[in-house]
Amino acid sequence: MRGGIMIKPEGELKVSFGYQCNSNKDSSCEDSDEYETLPELRRNSSFSCLSGAALSANATLANTNICNGLIGAEILPSWDSPNSFRRVPSSPTLSRLDILSSSLQSSLSNLSCSPSTPDSDSYLLKSMSPPSRSEGFLNAMEVQVAGGAAGEDRVQAVCSEENGWLFCAIYDGFNGRDAADFLAGTLYETIVFYFNLLDWESSQESIKASSGLDLDGSLPYIEDDSNTINEERFLPQIYRDRDSSVDNVSKNAPCAKPKICTDSFRHGVLDSLQRALSQAENDFLYMVEQEMEDRPDLVSVGSCVLVVLLHGKDLYTLNLGDSRAVLATYGDGDFMNGSERLKAIQLTDSHTVDDEGERMRVLCDHPDDPMTIVAGRVKGKLKVTRAFGVGYLKKKKLNDALMGILQVRNLLSPPYVSTQPSLNVHRISKSDCFVVVGSDGLFDFFTNDEAVKLVYSYILSNPSGDPAKFLLEQLVVRAANCAGFSMEELMNIPAGRRRKYHDDVTVIVIILGTNQRTTKASTSTRK
């Protein structure tokens, strides 16, 4: 990396992986011990660079023993790649559905807390064989995968060079890393399953459409004249709920296949993301119930969730909690006027009690509980209002598993923490430059505008550099200054004690467009 501030206390750099290449085959790649050279990305990709970095502050045990230890012992090793992106076949051999169903004594339908009925998602997981990966929405014969952990954070990246799509996720765990580990081991595969199901449903819908009817036999939906569709008339019930948001859905976005080039397909993608998250939540809480007698701490373990999916020119986001995806874009075609014209647009919502809308939503959901928010936290325990896991704020029997002061008193009307995500799809334009994806630890020190300007200035002077790592290093500078330490002094404080000065921080920077900047990806975990 050129132009960055390198922090090198002994033993600090624990994990580093990445890839880089030039689209111009006649030009040489920048070789180093840290990156491996790979073939170029296809030109149908809407991103030209992926960069990531992660810094730990919490001391945590990697004690993922849920599901008889399978998550930590068998599933995570198939995804984690601490030293480089690695190519793996996109086949059912990696599927969490196969591993869990063959290893548990009970059937997959028992993994869900909801009843197993012919209409339930659990029933579908049990009874249906996923379509071939080469035929689904994220169609690919093989993918590049990387992932790692920093304290209680987990980061994951999956991309297909052959088809130009990218999946990135940050799981910001709290009260332990079990929930984040579970998400890293299962959510991507669950999403792929529902995307394959969406592909099948879209095929059936196209057959109906050819006869002039929708899938349910009704007349087809007709768009308004405006640039956005009428959500109240079109969206499924989960999107009409006040807890969901679907923004920036344009009429003329591209699609994976011509036959399904409709806004309804984009909403179907968002619906699939929602269903996959709901399934993961049910699976996780069921497993917590099975093991809470031996590990009552599992009822308090949770995670924020941020998923970014770039497919063609559609940028989908799903989030629970306070991680953010921030788009850097020029306004009104001001491409060459520098960072002053660059706008930072937050693509995700912040689900915390500090947000007035979220605060009022939580209070309105519990009108008979005067102690819903105490000391700026939900039930005096949690600052985020939406999260994965954290079962003791969702079910009374899980709260009862805790003892003494750890138990929430007067849990009158659970659930107090929602699992309804914010959902968004943005159509990438020539004005869009890059996306900064980060856990809340990044934004403890930088505003959206500051993060965007730092990345912009860095990539101008370091076209082949690593902007995410640079951004993380600038955070260390600011955290050290705030604490009155040098950077070396701060980084030499052991994990756990260092949490007093900064949180676990995970950053991903996605450079958009096909302007053939050097393609690079890296993620590093520093302790």
Automatic annotation (TrEMBL):
Among SMART domains, the record links this protein to:
PP2Cc
- The gene it comes from is LOC103322985
**Superkingdom, according to UniProt?**
Eukaryota
SUPFAM superfamilies on file:
PP2C-like (SSF81606)
- Output this protein's name: Probable protein phosphatase 2C 40 isoform X3
Membrane-spanning parts: none
Q: Where is the PPM-type phosphatase domain?
A: 137-512
